[in-house]
Amino acid sequence: MALYKTYSKDQKKCAVTFELTPEAANGAEQVWLAGDFNSWSSIDTPMKKLKNGTFKVKLTLEAGKEYVFEVFSGKATNYTSAQQNGPDFSFTFTTTAA
């Protein structure tokens, strides 16, 4: 899982692009991002599958905060059902510029 951050001119917002390689996706046809930024919804933030098999999604978040997220693959109807199989990845990141 890779993430790339860019900041607004006023440094108040951070655009975060999440990328999951085909190898990391392990053959998944659908992947979702869940975290404190979307109330832990495992279906509200789907990642788009690109032609090369990479999954990608871009979010605009408030800068200067720490966020926790998990990546789920497969078919989940809500966070509880997704949790039954467990996340594929769990991460914490901050939107503070390096």
3D structure, described in words:
The protein has 98 residues and is mainly beta. Helices cover 11% and strands 46% of the residues. The protein has two helices and seven strands. The chain has a seven-stranded antiparallel β-sheet with strand order 1-2-5-4-3-6-7. A hairpin with a 5-residue loop joins strand 1 (2-7) and strand 2 (13-20). It is globular and about 40 Å long. Residues 76-82 have low confidence and may be disordered.
Question: Any chance you could write out the topology, listing elements then pairs?
Answer:
Layout lengths: L1 E6 L5 E8 L1 H4 L5 E5 L10 E4 L5 E8 L3 E8 L5 H7 L3 E6 L4
Antiparallel strand pairs: 1-2, 2-5, 3-4, 3-6, 4-5, 6-7
Compute the average pLDDT: 81
Order of helices and strands: EEHEEEEHE
Q: Could you tell me the number of beta strands?
A: 7
Helix count equals 2
Order of the strands making up the biggest sheet? 1-2-5-4-3-6-7
Radius of gyration: 13 Å
Query: In percent, how helical is the residue content?
Result: 10-25%
- Shape annotation: globular
Tell me the span between the first and last alpha carbons. Answer: 19 Å
